Amino acid sequence: MAEDDQQVAMALAIADGAEEVATxxxxxxATFLIKLAETLKGTEGxxxxxxxxxxxxxxxxxxxxxxxAHAKAAIVKLAAKRAAPExxxxxxx
Length: 93
What we know:
The protein is mainly α. The chain contains 4 helices and no strands. Helix 3 (48-57) runs antiparallel to helix 4 (67-83).
């Protein structure tokens, strides 16, 4: 119905001789997902690396057919990196 109301308003404005008719901005799926990813990464308490994995693999307009498998592989890689003991900068001696 909102679209019908908008079309009627545009038609009336054109009939009244308005030179320009303002149309509301429409948020595209890509814009929505970009904003969602930015918000997710910037939220306190959210793992930024994990959010990056989700952004790169799942939160896309046209996710790859194997998006879940790719995300899983990236998460496993991230977990392995975090689980590995940190190398000591200075040798004990």
